[in-house]
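Title: [Solved] Epoxyqueuosine reductase 3D structure

Original question kept below for reference.
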Amino acid sequence: MNSKEEHTKLIKAAAKRLGFLSCGISKAEFLEDEAPRLETWLNKNMNGEMGYMENYFDKRLDPTKLVPGSKSVISLLLNYYPSEKQKSDTYKISKYAYGRDYHFVIKDKLKQLMHVIQEEIGEVNGRAFVDSAPVLDKAWAAKSGLGWIGKHSNLLTKQTGSFYFIAELIIDLDLEYDTPVTDHCGSCTACIDACPTQAIVDPYVVDGSKCISYLTIELKNEIPNEFSGKMEDWMFGCDICQDVCPWNRFSKPHNEPLFNPHPALLENSKQDWEEITKEVFNEIFRKSAVKRTKYEGLKRNIQFLKN
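Solution (posted by the thread starter after getting help):
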């Protein structure tokens, strides 16, 4: 076994031990296919108020510009599918935000993985990324053979669907590279048909400015009236396109205790959410991704759903 092969095996085994669902590796190079797609998407203002999507265009497409000297992009998936869900007649929160903020949970695992790499292989430099830098996570995961990008623009895997987080280590070490898998969406249009705001404007193209996740999290101004009656009780994020996807029949509950929800999150009725105080908000969402929308943002969303 050559050293490249050996190092690759070692990294994948360590990722598995740390609880990652899967690990795929790509050569760090310019994402040629993504460049025109990203440019068109931005030119059509499908990023809405997410101005940051226009920043660092070159770095977004080329990891060697983001992490000088980088040679490999290690993509990792971490399952967040819950064993228990909210009751049906309440204001809903996207499943990824049920427990502890994933940024902290995954960053910790990535640090541990980097430590193993440096300990076992020697001087390896690089950076860890969890959805907080100009990295096209889904494109790298697909390039690394971890799944294909579905018509709802999320990464899909035959064995486990799409309820997982994607993260990367971009490092200056040559490794064995994986190859992409084929698309298995076929003629299915379940996600397109189910989206109440018609945010999936074409297969594989989502207009971010129409997406319920964007409206309830990223949008800082008032939610436009055109979406009144179309939000289906989602007060933070939205899982509709994933919930209807046939591949998510294969989702299995995660085994990460930090992703388990506060009991009130599962039990609260609509009235409980409508009457939520800042103190209760801070207690339920103490270390949660829901903090991003802040108490005022959640109240705004609930008020919009009520009207």
